[in-house]
Automatic annotation (TrEMBL):
It comes from Halobacteriovorax vibrionivorans. It comes from the Bacteria. This is Lipoprotein.
Length: 787
């Protein structure tokens, strides 16, 4: 990273950088009060903001954050009543801050904090002192309400907006055809009320967050400052609502399917679970989620910086949204050669550019910068107006997210063939096997840009935005990571797939998967084991589904750095980037895969293990018809059994049969909950990769380095987190000394042959192939059960 020199900065920041976790979403168009038309500057006349100064249904708010309203002069001592709207603005005629949207009843409720009901206002006059909790709630309600109205209106009328005055659709949409009928862009089968709750004066310290599980946004406070709150910064509100809409759009197709097919039926996970854009503490999808949410603050206010007040002024954690921002270091600009390029600028922080920081918000800046640049391209070459250009970006994202989050394995109503493997495995595919990453997000987004602009002029009336324009812009951000647009949706060998002009790939590097290898240097161990009880206990609570774990309190963990009976352990497999480029989005998978046949391990995979003499078998070539045959997709961990005359590598059910005769173990002694054990329990009887935590994520590795060398703390120690460990549960009944081999798979985001099939004109691999080895490398880890 070329980050040796900082630019001179317009504003001086005094505090150390602090990471903020502004979790998950999206939003849409702006209909807010123009702050330039309705404010005084800092030091202007303070307004008496009391109920007797406004009519019923009206109040006063901060139209933008205090720094913007004060020309960057506001500080913690500024009287915010000098910055609120001079004229009252419409709030609500209700007596509570509870909203019924046009298409969705009871859609929004704003309250103070958890467990506190919305406050009652008998007069419906919404003017309160700026230091009061009532003002914070009104400010949050005003901005949320405006955004929600626009989003819901756009989605309710999506087809009329996207296909104006046309007798037929100009392209095949991923948006469900009955979306407006079921309101599947907002309503959830698992949250029937679909009411977004906003806690505007939350006790959340130094943070704001969105939780999809209870459909709640929390706007916290800044520690060390009495009156500084996140709810005073509308760009933070927009960011959090952005996460909300990302979650809604990722499940757009799922919710439509659920309404039509799932009432009284939970056969498939799409009927009881939903998609997320990101599943682990740090994966590509969460970084993209953060970038999208940052972009949608720009979508509302057209300002190329996010969080100046709530994040930047006091905590040095605000984020630029374009290369023209003065906080960027020298060498970053809007010139095509100087963009915020992937993966070079992963971990780049404008407040401490001399070092990389492992943080999803920073990594997401690449996406936000790309989308802002694309908006300007659309304005100049497609729409002619900035407002319509932003809408076009939003419509493209709506199409993209509905497709990427689809658990029904169709992507479009008209599809007969399956994508995302199939409805039985789709959730596991999205979570760990083939998740959203920088590569496939860029490809899917580009595919939708192609159909909505270049292949259709209704949304691009200027008609001067070309395929080369799109590819060159993607490449300037290092995001031209695909060889085809995959317009045939992984159906390898079918005709009609649009290919990338390879001359446009100048900055985007594609690395061979063979350059991700096991680190065999003597200075590093093959694996690192983490088994301290207090740490693992917190991980169970924060990262895992309780029903997946037999021993939920980590009672057997002894903290000796070995894998012992009864423990839940975190394992880090040491991999090495052998290339001369940054390797990004590396994942080590401990999820089940098709490495066996009839329950016997395949001998003819690239690891050549185990041999036929060790109990292996020659497996049939994987096809779309046999990938999930009985005994084919199996857990990764196998156990060694020696009967005194030979050594065999057995699946865990077969090992249990040996233990029945040797030491009297029974099915009920296997890992699992309840009296009965399922076939899945028997296959995971002794060593279970915990499904919700079965992937090791490494956001980036420097050239010719491993993670320990790439990311270290101030004492030079490697930084391990829940996200870059895989977690396994060990049966308390497993014999000490048992040898375990876990056959893992590895991949990374800027990989060439992890996604492109060189034997099929570099078309994408079919999804069933991701059930096996072909798109991956195999990495075997070995450990012996200790005391």
């Amino acid at each position: 990273m070329n980050i040796a020199v900082r630019k001179l900065r317009k504003k001086q920041r005094e505090l150390k950088a602090l990471t903020f976790y502004l979790c998950l979403g999206l939003l849409t168009t702006s209909c807010l009060v123009d702050p330039a038309q309705n404010r005084t500057g800092s030091g202007g006349k303070a307004l008496k903001n009391t109920q007797d100064t406004v009519s019923a249904g009206y109040g006063r708010v901060l139209a933008a954050n205090p720094l913007i309203l004060s020309d960057y002069s506001a500080d913690e001592d500024t009287d915010l009543s000098t910055l609120i709207t001079r004229s009252p603005v419409p709030i609500t005629n209700n007596q509570y801050l509870i909203k019924d949207c046009t298409m969705v009843a009871n859609c929004l409720e704003v309250t103070e904090d958890t467990g506190i009901s919305p406050f009652y206002n008998e007069t419906s006059q919404w003017a309160f002192p700026v230091t009061s909790t009532e003002f914070l709630q009104i400010n949050a309600y005003y901005h949320m309400s405006k955004i929600m109205d626009t989003y819901l209106s756009d989605m309710q009328n999506y087809y009329n907006i996207v296909y104006p005055n046309t007798g037929s659709r100009p392209f095949s949409s991923t948006i469900p055809s009955d979306s407006d009928q079921h309101k599947s862009f907002w309503k959830s089968l698992t949250n029937s009320s679909s009411k977004l709750i906003v806690e505007a004066d939350s006790s959340l310290k130094d943070n704001a967050s969105f939780s999809p599980s209870n459909f709640k946004i929390r706007l916290g406070y800044l520690s060390g400052y009495t009156n500084l709150k996140m709810a005073q910064d509308p760009s933070v509100i927009y960011h959090e609502f952005g996460h909300t809409v990302v979650e809604r759009l990722m499940n757009h197709r799922n919710r439509s399917y659920a309404v039509n097919n799932c009432l009284g039926n939970d056969e498939y996970e799409v009927c009881s679970g939903e998609s997320q854009l990101g599943y682990f503490a740090h994966d590509d999808a969460l970084s993209i989620n953060e970038g999208l949410s940052d972009y949608f603050s720009y979508f509302v206010n057209s300002r190329e910086h996010m969080g100046e007040w709530g994040l930047g002024k006091f905590k040095n954690a605000s984020r630029p949204l374009s290369e023209d921002d003065s906080l960027h270091i020298a060498g970053i600009s809007s010139d095509s050669d100087s963009r915020l390029r992937y993966p070079e600028y992963l971990g780049y922080n404008v407040y401490s550019p001399e070092k990389r920081i492992d943080d999803i918000h920073l990594d997401g800046q690449i996406i936000s910068h790309f989308l802002v640049a694309l908006t300007k391209e659309f304005q100049n070459k497609c729409t002619g107006t900035h407002t319509q250009a932003k809408k076009l970006v939003f419509y493209t994202l709506a199409e993209t997210l509905a497709e990427l989050g689809d658990l029904t394995a169709k992507a479009k109503d008209s599809f007969v063939d399956q994508i995302n493997l199939d409805i039985n495995y789709a959730h596991e595919w999205l979570k760990s096997v083939k998740p959203v990453n920088f590569r496939n997000f860029s490809q899917a987004f580009a595919r939708n840009v192609l159909k909505m602009t270049i292949q259709s002029t209704s949304l691009c009336p200027l008609n001067s935005f070309s395929k080369d324009d799109l590819e060159q812009l993607l490449d300037s951000y290092g995001l031209l990571l695909f060889r085809t647009y995959n317009t045939n949706y992984n159906f390898t060998g079918t005709s009609g797939n649009v290919t990338v002009n390879q001359l446009n790939r100048k900055k985007s590097e594609l690395i061979s998967k063979n350059l991700l290898i096991e680190d065999t240097r003597s200075t590093y161990s093959d694996i690192s084991v983490f088994d301290i009880r207090s740490t693992i206990y917190q991980t169970i609570r924060n990262q895992m589904k309780i029903e997946e774990v037999t021993t939920t309190d980590a009672r057997y963990n002894n903290g000796n750095g070995q894998v012992s009976p009864g423990e839940i352990v975190g394992i880090f497999a040491n991999v090495f980037n052998k290339s001369n480029s940054i390797m990004a989005g590396t994942r080590v998978l401990a999820s089940d895969w098709a490495h066996m046949q009839d329950g016997l391990p395949c001998t003819d995979l690239s690891d050549n293990f185990p041999s036929l003499a060790q109990g292996g078998t020659t497996c049939d070539q994987l096809t779309k018809d046999n990938y999930d045959d009985s005994g084919r997709i199996m857990p990764v961990c196998m156990l060694t059994y020696n009967d005194g005359s030979s050594t065999k590598i057995l699946n865990q059910h077969e090992f249990l049969k040996k233990m029945k005769s040797d030491i009297g173990l029974l099915e009920q002694d296997c890992l699992g909950q309840g009296e009965e054990r399922t076939q899945d329990d028997l296959n995971n009887c002794f060593v279970k990769a915990i499904p919700s935590a079965n992937t090791q994520n490494i956001p980036f590795m420097l050239p010719n380095s491993n993670w320990q060398e790439t990311m270290q703390d101030e004492q030079g120690q490697p930084i391990f987190t829940d996200s870059n460990l895989m977690f396994f549960e060990i049966n308390k009944n497993i014999p000490i000394g048992t040898e375990v081999t876990c056959r893992l798979r590895t991949t990374f985001s800027n990989c060439d042959d992890c996604y492109h099939d060189s034997q099929s004109s570099y078309d994408d691999f079919s999804d069933f192939e991701f059930a096996g080895e072909k798109p991956f490398n195999i990495l075997n880890i070995n450990f012996k059960i200790g005391q």
